[in-house]
């Protein structure tokens, strides 16, 4: 009888021991994730602070879109000049100018210009300036791999959209550890589409023309102008 009691106590002790190890492991794992998230948050905050410290930003970039199932493989180049919330974006043959109140979309191929108002307070309004700090809301994130790219240390942060309606499975944000500038952005869609935006040059605090963000209708005498607002 005594041996059965001792055996029962032994089994209970072993069970408690296993449970303790399991709980300890879970707590350690949870702590590691929180610590990792904290490091990711700190790095993202540094990127945001760096971007907001510049008076002007000029970026030349490469954009790639691939989908193996659909046999899609496209490459494009573009550039954007920004000052505050104003910008001039040239991409895929189209120029977009935002003067702080209205957006002017100029399409030379169609000789057409579309003018529309933009509510900058609208969180859903996508602008180039927001693209540099988009990661601050709507994502769960943690540190990913560290890569050496042509002598530059690029730390990747994996961002997973919190909205189930988002068509993106995940986003990988590559950050230059030394400069705290975004090196590239990789979006992986739920249907296999992968888009990559790589920054070829990142210039800051460059002198700009006084009329850099001013739309001059006189430059487009033969264009059809479509005013949405």
Automatic annotation (TrEMBL):
<dbReference type="InterPro" id="IPR004564">
    <property type="entry name" value="OM_lipoprot_carrier_LolA-like"/>
</dbReference>
<dbReference type="InterPro" id="IPR029046">
    <property type="entry name" value="LolA/LolB/LppX"/>
</dbReference>
<protein>
    <submittedName>
        <fullName>Outer membrane lipoprotein carrier protein LolA</fullName>
    </submittedName>
</protein>
<dbReference type="Pfam" id="PF03548">
    <property type="entry name" value="LolA"/>
</dbReference>
<keyword id="KW-0732">Signal</keyword>
<keyword id="KW-0449">Lipoprotein</keyword>
<feature type="signal peptide">
    <location>
        <begin position="1"/>
        <end position="35"/>
    </location>
</feature>
């Amino acid at each position: 009888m005594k041996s059965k009691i001792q055996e029962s106590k032994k089994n209970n002790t072993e069970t408690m021991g296993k449970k303790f190890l399991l709980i300890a492991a879970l707590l350690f794992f949870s702590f590691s994730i929180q610590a990792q998230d904290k490091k990711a948050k700190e790095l993202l905050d540094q990127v945001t602070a760096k971007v907001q410290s510049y008076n002007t930003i000029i970026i030349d970039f490469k954009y790639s879109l691939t989908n193996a199932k659909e046999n899609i493989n496209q490459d494009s180049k573009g550039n954007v000049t920004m000052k505050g919330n104003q910008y001039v974006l040239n991409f895929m043959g189209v120029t977009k100018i935002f003067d702080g109140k209205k957006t002017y979309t100029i399409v030379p191929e169609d000789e057409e210009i579309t003018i529309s108002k933009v509510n900058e307070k609208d969180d859903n309004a996508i602008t180039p300036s927001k693209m540099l700090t988009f990661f601050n809301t709507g994502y769960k994130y943690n540190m990913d791999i560290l890569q050496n790219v042509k002598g530059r240390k690029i730390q990747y942060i994996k961002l997973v959209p919190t909205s189930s309606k988002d068509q993106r499975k995940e986003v990988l944000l590559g950050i230059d550890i030394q400069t705290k500038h975004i090196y590239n952005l990789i979006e992986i869609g739920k249907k296999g589409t992968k888009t990559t935006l790589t920054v070829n040059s990142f210039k800051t605090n460059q002198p700009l023309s006084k009329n850099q963000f001013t739309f001059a209708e006189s430059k487009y005498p033969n264009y059809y102008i479509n005013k949405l607002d």
